[in-house]
């Protein structure tokens, strides 16, 4: 099912609150201290606020991590300092941003989330 989302995309509805969501990444960048470059989008992200699972999947595998949901107004923050990951989901617009630190660089992903079909 998740691999199919990478190939086919997903139909998205506007949820009133986060439960289980699929987040399709529209753009991704790798940034160092001196510059940023666009890189190939190969992942789709899954957020399950109720169970506290956050998955990042490509065509070959999924990396599933546990997180403690943090809500402030219409924003859901996913903070996992051990993995160098911070993600923010605006539940009003369903826009998604993820920042992940890698040694001397960071990757930044932008996308949109919706209820899985």
Low-confidence stretches: 1-17
Radius of gyration over all CA atoms, rounded: 14 Å
Average pLDDT number: 84
Estimate percent helicity: under 10%
Shape category: globular
Calculate the terminal CA-CA distance, rounded to whole Å: 10 Å
Largest sheet: 10 strands, antiparallel
**Count of DSSP E strands?**
10
Strand content: over 45%
Order of SSEs = HEEEEEEEEEE
With helices defined by DSSP (H or I, 4 residues minimum), what is the helix count? 1
Q: Label the structural class.
A: mainly beta
Q: What would you say this structure looks like, in words?
A:
The chain has 117 residues and is mainly beta. The protein contains one helix and ten strands, in the order H-E-E-E-E-E-E-E-E-E-E. Strands 1, 2, 3, 4, 5, 6, 7, 8, 9 and 10 form a ten-stranded antiparallel beta sheet that branches. Strand 9 (95-102) and strand 10 (105-114) form a beta hairpin. It starts with a helix and ends with a strand.
Note the main attributes of this structure.
disordered N terminus, 6% helix, mainly beta, 117 residues, globular, 10-stranded antiparallel beta sheet
Quick gist of this model?
The protein has 117 residues and is mainly β. The protein has 1 helix and 10 strands, in the order αββββββββββ.
Topology:
Blueprint: H1 2-8, E1 20-31, E2 36-38, E3 44-48, E4 53-57, E5 62-66, E6 70-72, E7 75-80, E8 85-90, E9 95-102, E10 105-114
Antiparallel strand pairs: 1-2, 1-3, 1-10, 3-4, 4-5, 6-7, 7-8, 8-9, 9-10
